[in-house]
Amino acid sequence: MNSEQSDAPELNVVIEIPRGSFLKRGSTGQIDFVSPLPCPFNYGSVPSFLGLEGDLLDAVVLGPRLATGTRIRIKAWGAVILTDRGMSDDKLICSDRPLSASQRRTVLRFFHFYAKFKGLLNWWRGRPGLNACGGWCRADEALTRARPRDDSWQGPPIEF
User: Does 156 score more than 60 pLDDT?
Assistant: First the structure.
């Protein structure tokens, strides 16, 4: 076991979008858009951290479909750096076991595609800015860029 595997942080994640869903929800639970393709992963957030864009830190949970609102404690094995409208937006990649090289490639392919799709959606909505996938990084790097959430955060509560 290498240090990346033994040092993987364990976090609480709340699922906002179940694997296979066509509905893209934000951390408020409101529908952001309807996707033409189903989400290949469970998608949620880490309620105890804020990402660089000021919203809850995003997390992808690999494995079987989890219901909206599921709260799970799970390890983050890495992160994908996504740029959305010019703002960096890390996505922690979580699983109950270390990711294989194939799983990492699949996750990166998805986020490269997602960045292009989000760029088209933002263009259509009149929201300018760069959209790109910046690749893979360690989970602790993403957590270092995030900030712990405290009671002063004014975002909406997570409710489903």
Answer: no
Task: Specify if 154 maps to a domain.
Answer: no
Q: What kind and span of H or E run contains 124? A: helix 101-125
* Overall domain count for the chain: 1
pLDDT in tens, 51-72: 988 889 999 999 999 999 999 9
Cβ atoms of 100 and 77 within 8 Å: the answer is: no
In whole angstroms, give the CA distance from residue 103 to residue 110.
Answer: 11
Domain residue limits at 60? 3-148
CATH of the domain at 137: 3.90.80.10
Burial of residue 59 (number of CB atoms within 10 Å: 0-12, 13-18, 19+): buried
pTM, two decimals, is 0.84
Category of 104 on φ-ψ map: left (φ > 0), alpha (ψ -120 to 50) or beta: alpha
Task: Tell whether 156 is covered by a domain.
Answer: no
